[in-house]
Write a structure and sequence with these properties.
- This protein is an alpha/beta fold.
- The protein has ten helices and 21 strands.
- It has a nine-stranded mixed sheet with strand order 4-5-3-6-7-8-9-10-14, sandwiched between helices. Strands 11-12-13-15 form a four-stranded antiparallel sheet, with no helix packed on it. The protein has a four-stranded mixed sheet with strand order 20-19-18-21, covered by helices on one side.
- Helix 8 links the parallel strand 6 and strand 7.
- About 1% of the residues have low confidence.
């Protein structure tokens, strides 16, 4: 369905008003993100500061850090961030962001105006390194709810030359519409959640279509696997992945060799040794006076210590892989944490989507959406999924397969391939 019918004239007027508000927001984004004056000023500031070396004395001035009694060797956790929010006020010209909470209770994060401007600078700088130019045609596949300002499945922002298409509507039923949009507008870049652009690649593969105009795919907000990156690149275009957080304490961006480089002029980043050879990303922000965070634990992990000397030529430290949030893994009774399970679903022809949910320590539920719902093919799919997963778990956990028509996304529009509810 390309359009939904409006029940009343009043609903149509409300859509028009909200549509205009969204276009005004787009104009503001252009002024902030692509303003040559602010970009040049940010570039000069970043170059002047150079590699970040924070001074603990500055962070000690915040009342919460004073009360907590932490010293320069200590780290900060989310509970202390909540206390900071409680004792702080939104800056006059700043903004409010939201950090993901472990109990689905997002935490407010205050950002100063300088922090907002510099964040845009680092984003645009990365895009330019990938070949992006202002006004290049782009399609955005993220979790924005388009129904509040349009009765169509897509929405154009002419001032940015962008087309918004909600990740909620990426389904085989809309394949022809997606192809029409790509052919008509010849999108040069895609901005998306990894799960969204992977879903798009699946849809295009199922109909034998591959867009020829796409130069790059910009992703963020979710973890990737090497298998998924390779699949998307073979079907759509080169992937450039941006890792960050709402707290803005660390920034890592992938190069053409798929290594994640630390933005050394963005914040001070450490990699603390953890279990099973992993290293946790810990960061100290330096450009957010509204909420200064000292050695903040992200609970995100890398699989090896950082190195230097990447073939791409950048001199910054890099890591080869970033694991997702700590709850997006399956936990076994012996304490083992199993992640990157999407590989278990590779090569299953009748599988359109799958999600693993763990609510008990010794068992998981696997929800599968089949391409064909014929009895024989569904039964075969269930057997193949069980066999493939068991080859990874080797009898260490109970597996129950459920065949469903659809898998709901998170309220943000993201798709979680593994949900740990323990």
């Amino acid at each position: 369905m390309v359009e939904k019918k409006l029940s009343t004239a009043g609903e149509g007027y409300m859509l028009l008003i909200k549509s205009c508000v969204r276009q005004l927001k787009s104009i503001f984004n252009v002024l902030v993100r692509y303003n040559p004056v602010s970009y040049f000023a940010a570039a000069c500031m970043v170059r002047w500061k150079g590699e970040v070396r924070p001074d603990f004395a500055y962070y000690q001035q915040h009342p919460v850090i004073q009360i907590s009694g932490i010293n320069h060797n200590d780290t900060m956790e989310k509970p202390l961030l909540r206390e900071m929010v409680f004792r702080s006020r939104k800056p006059l010209f700043g903004t409010v962001g939201y950090s993901s909470g472990t109990t689905n209770s997002p935490i407010k994060v205050y950002r100063s105006l300088l922090n907002v401007l510099l964040e845009e600078f680092f984003t645009v700088r990365y895009w330019r390194e990938a070949g992006f130019k202002f006004f290049d045609s782009t399609i955005v596949l993220r979790g924005e709810n388009l129904s509040i300002f349009t009765n169509k499945l897509y929405f154009f922002l002419p001032f940015e030359n962008k087309c918004l298409f909600s990740s909620f509507d990426l389904s085989p039923d809309n394949a022809s519409l997606l192809v029409d949009l790509f052919e008509k507008h010849q999108f040069k870049f895609v901005q998306a959640y990894p799960s969204s652009v992977y879903q798009l690649a699946l849809i295009f593969q199922s109909i034998g279509y591959s867009p020829s105009s796409v130069r790059g795919v910009f992703t963020s907000s979710e973890s990737w696997s090497d298998f998924d990156v390779e699949f998307v690149e073979s079907q759509i275009g080169s992937v450039f992945d941006h890792y960050g957080q709402a707290e803005r304490v660390a920034l890592l961006q992938s190069c053409r060799f798929k290594n994640y480089h630390v933005a050394e002029d963005y914040s001070y980043v450490e990699f603390l040794p953890s279990e099973n050879g992993l290293h946790e990303i810990v960061g100290t922000n330096v450009n957010n006076s509204a909420m200064p965070l000292w050695r903040y634990r992200t609970h995100d992990f890398v699989t090896s210590e950082p190195r230097v000397g990447c073939p791409c030529g950048k001199s910054s430290r890099f890591v080869t892989n970033i694991l997702g949030r700590s709850d997006d893994v399956v936990v076994l009774s012996d304490g083992s944490r199993i992640g990157r399970l999407d590989v278990a679903f590779k090569g299953l022809d009748n599988l359109f989507a799958a999600q693993i949910v763990q609510s008990k320590l010794n068992e998981i539920d696997v929800y599968c959406v089949p391409v064909s719902d014929s009895f024989h093919e569904v039964a075969h799919l269930k057997n193949e999924v069980a066999r493939s997963l068991d080859s990874y778990f080797r009898g260490r956990i109970g597996i129950t397969i459920h065949v469903v028509e659809d898998i709901k996304r998170e309220p943000s529009g993201k798709f979680r391939s593994v949900k740990n509810l323990l």
